[in-house]
Amino acid sequence: MSHARHMGRRPPVKIPPDLRARLETARLDLLALFRALDRMDLSPAEIPQRLIRQLFELDADYAEALWALDQPPASLDLYAMLRDTMAALEQLPEACSRFRSHLPPRAHPNLTHLEITVRKNLGADHVDRHLERMMEGAVKLTTSGFADAIIENMQAQVVAK
Questions:
Q1: How far is CA 47 from CA 34, 72, 98, 99, in A?
Q2: What number of other Cβ atoms are within 10 A of residue 141's Cβ?
Q3: Sign (positive/negative) of CA torsion 145, 39, 122, 106?
């Protein structure tokens, strides 16, 4: 009967050392996409609502996983958290591709350009108040200061071409 006690036990969960970085990168990539979309001249009807909701849900999953990584290990089912988190990370490339494919063709070149520019700013150490909380060592800018930094990066890209 002693073996029955051990049947339900799982091996210890080993959290991948790069999991936090992968989650933070996924969140920043999604934020760049959302901010780029916000700067475009698209009507709500042109944005596939069901697909953007899926991206919002993935972002929420990543935020929850980051929160879970900061909790005491015994307070959560780490096996379930890791399983769900890895599944959510695997879904992101296909979900983004599906979303982009349902945007109007005229949006693609501008979205790509804006997304790259915004993402470059999100990777910088000078960010707006929303990102400052997420990024260690970041310097908080005002909203207008952050917008100025985005414009400067866009102008620098135009000059570089």
A1: 11, 40, 12, 9
A2: 19
A3: negative
Task: Quote the distance between the C-alpha of residue 55 and its chain's center.
Answer: 9
Angle CA 42–47–48, to nearest 5: 170
What is the per-residue pLDDT for 137? Answer: 60
Report the C-alpha gap between 17 and 75 in whole angstroms: 20
- The residue count for the chain: 161
Both tokens of residue 134?
């997420």
Residue found by looking up tokens 């960010």 in the block: 127
Q: Give the residue from 74, 73, 68, 101 showing the smallest Cα distance to 86.
A: 68
Domain ranges of the chain: 15-160
Of the pLDDT bands very low, low, confident and very high (cuts 50, 70, 90), residue 51 is very high
Hey, how many other C-beta atoms are within 10 angstroms of the C-beta on 82? 19
**What predicted TM-score, i.e. pTM, was given to this entire model?**
0.71
